[in-house]
Amino acid sequence: MPKLEVKDLDINFGGIKALSGVSFCVGENQLFGLIGPNGAGKTTVLNIINGVYQPSSGNIFLDEKNIVGLRPHQIAEMGVARTFQNIELFKNISVIDNFLLGRHQFIKSGILWGSFYLGKCLKEEMVNRDRVEEIVEFLEIEAYRKKIVRMLPYGIQKRVELGRALSMDPKILLLDEPCSGMNTEETEDMARFILDIKEEMGISIMMIEHNMEVVMDIADRICVINFGIKIAEGNPREIQSDPKVIKAYLGED
């Protein structure tokens, strides 16, 4: 069964139809690419999946449960985590504290235990810190773990945002332009981490990315949208040779 299924997704903004009948499935432990020219509606799809926008019509199923109509925090609690094209971190606190904030849904002890920092609260704190340290090591950012985020290089901040999403222990990870603004070395590192997340953690990934070399190298399957309409879906080789995709990116002679 698919991890995520999007069926006949429509959304209108005023008189503008931003998406029309978009459908696709992200499989279990699959790296799924969503691509298209600027303004095609890619980020709008992510905004609908994680509850920022409500669709005009259509359904979205996570593990066969319809999540349309749920609020973003409810969808996050069901196992959907996301990164953003423009970095959305708490930039005046440390890397570790950003990761711990990503684990807030796992903190179940009440105000009483928290006031004395004993018992259940202390145990939760230890478990969550252990998980955060695992992610720090996985992303190879041990040297930055106590640094204030705004002081870090851009490429490391992008890695921290990925780690903050991972700290939610998601079932599916939505990545919006994870390699944007990076140099070649940083891009190669990010692509490697994304592949490792799929292969070592077994997390399904849906990725928007303008770097076609990255998408074609690491995606298992790719969906292409243009002007809010799905025009192609297939493996990287099929997408590269699809006339409709070539026309969308290069135009007609």
Outline of the structure:
This protein is α/β, with parallel strands linked by helices and 253 residues long. The protein is built from ten helices and ten strands. It folds into two domains: 4-79 and 170-250, P-loop containing nucleotide triphosphate hydrolases (Rossmann fold, 3-Layer(aba) Sandwich); 88-150, no CATH class.
The general outline is globular
CATH superfamily label of the largest domain: P-loop containing nucleotide triphosphate hydrolases
Query: Total number of helical segments?
Result: 10
**Fraction of helical residues:** 25-40%
Number of strands: 10
What is the level-2 CATH architecture name of the largest domain? Answer: 3-Layer(aba) Sandwich
Averaging pLDDT over every residue, what do you get? Answer: 91
- Amino-to-carboxy terminus distance: 42 Å
**Biggest β-sheet description:** 6 strands, mixed
Order of helices and strands: EEEHEEHEHHHHEHEHEEHH
The CATH topology of the largest domain corresponds to: Rossmann fold
Structural class: alpha/beta
β-strand percent reads 15-25%
**What ranges have pLDDT less than 50 throughout 5 or more consecutive residues?**
110-116
CATH class of the largest domain: Alpha Beta
How many discrete structural domains?
A: 2
Q: Going across the major beta sheet, what is the strand order?
A: 6-7-8-3-9-10
Oligomer: single chain
List the helices and strands and how they pair.
Elements: E1 4-13, E2 16-26, E3 31-35, H1 42-49, E4 57-62, E5 65-66, H2 72-77, E6 80-82, H3 95-101, H4 111-116, H5 119-138, H6 154-166, E7 172-176, H7 184-201, E8 204-208, H8 212-218, E9 221-226, E10 229-234, H9 236-240, H10 243-250
Parallel strand pairs: 3-8, 3-9, 6-7, 7-8
Antiparallel strand pairs: 1-2, 1-4, 4-5, 9-10
